[in-house]
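Q: Please design a sequence for this.
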């Protein structure tokens, strides 16, 4: 029986790693969301500390700059009682020419329990996971996937609207370079939401309709009747060449403002994975609208989701090690 089949039968998540949303079953995703829900109350309590990861070592290995993801993983691990090491790539051996596999071998010799990895190249986290004995969580790899972001987005929506199934979700902006968009497409379509992608032709991947989404190049048409409006950052650091005439022109046609938002449902929620470029992707007043914007809630849900993922993968790893020990006897 595969891990996916076991999860379907038992309602759990039985993989060693969390490398992406693609390929996960609805029961596996729902298990992680339900467990994450329980950690929201933990984070809101006066005493936030737990000892579920006491004696465990979590290494945050970030090859790209990050504030929200790295900090929330660090906070999540510490609240579960783990020892946390943040690897400073700028001063590490990688800058001296060490390969990713050499780095994996070095870290493996230190016997960590969980590696949280962010890397600019798609597939790098998968490669690393094949070379280490610990659990690996993908904190974002290139333009491929960012699974915990999709989970926290789903958590935010579900806690506000009570469901994901049947909702109309618009993902708007730089689709081509967005790992957030890809993970959200996989998760939302798996759980029964309908997804629309809105972007200029230069920022829309070819043949993306194969992922079960609708595509639009007109913001107002794409937003018609939507329950959720998820804005994305223009990832200029991944762009080689000119994808938009100017940020001013981009905001005119694809930035979210009050006029364009009127096409969506009157109570449509506004989301953004951050960091935001105000006045480029989204109007400041909408970003700060306490009734419709859930951007701050996304940050809060991020800690709960990452606690749930660390908790789950630790349990799976400990069960795996126990089974190996028993088999060796």
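A: Design:
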């Amino acid at each position: 029986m595969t891990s996916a089949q076991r999860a379907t039968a038992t309602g759990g998540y039985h993989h060693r790693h969390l490398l992406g949303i693609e390929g996960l079953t609805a029961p596996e995703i729902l298990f992680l969301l339900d467990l994450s829900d329980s950690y929201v109350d933990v984070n809101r309590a006066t005493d936030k500390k737990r000892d579920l990861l006491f004696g465990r070592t979590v290494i945050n290995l970030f090859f790209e700059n990050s504030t929200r993801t790295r900090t929330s993983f660090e906070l999540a691990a510490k609240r579960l009682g783990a020892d946390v090491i943040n690897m400073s790539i700028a001063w590490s051996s990688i800058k001296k020419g060490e390969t990713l596999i050499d780095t994996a071998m070095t870290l493996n010799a230190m016997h960590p329990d969980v590696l949280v990895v962010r890397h600019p190249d798609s597939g790098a986290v998968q490669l690393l996971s094949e070379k280490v004995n610990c659990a690996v969580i993908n904190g974002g790899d290139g333009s491929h996937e960012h699974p915990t972001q999709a989970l926290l987005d789903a958590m935010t929506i579900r806690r506000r609207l009570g469901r994901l199934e049947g909702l109309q979700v618009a993902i708007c902006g730089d689709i081509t370079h967005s790992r957030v968009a890809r993970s959200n497409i996989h998760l939302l379509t798996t759980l029964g939401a309908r997804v629309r992608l809105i972007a200029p032709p230069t920022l829309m991947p070819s043949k993306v309709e194969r992922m079960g989404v609708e595509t639009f190049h007109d913001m107002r048409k794409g937003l018609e009747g939507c329950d959720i409006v998820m804005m994305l950052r223009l990832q200029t650091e991944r762009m080689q060449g000119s994808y938009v005439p100017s940020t001013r022109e981009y905001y005119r046609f694809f930035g979210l403002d009050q006029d364009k938002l009127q096409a969506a449902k009157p109570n449509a929620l506004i989301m953004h994975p951050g960091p935001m470029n105000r006045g480029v992707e989204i109007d400041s007043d909408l970003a700060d609208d306490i009734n419709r914007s859930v951007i701050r809630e996304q940050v809060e849900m991020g800690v709960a989701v990452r606690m749930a993922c660390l908790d789950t993968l630790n349990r799976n790893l400990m069960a795996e090690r126990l089974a190996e020990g028993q088999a060796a006897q």
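Q: Thanks. Anything notable?
A: Residues 1-10 have pLDDT under 50 and may be disordered. The CA atoms of residues 28 and 160 lie 21 Å apart.
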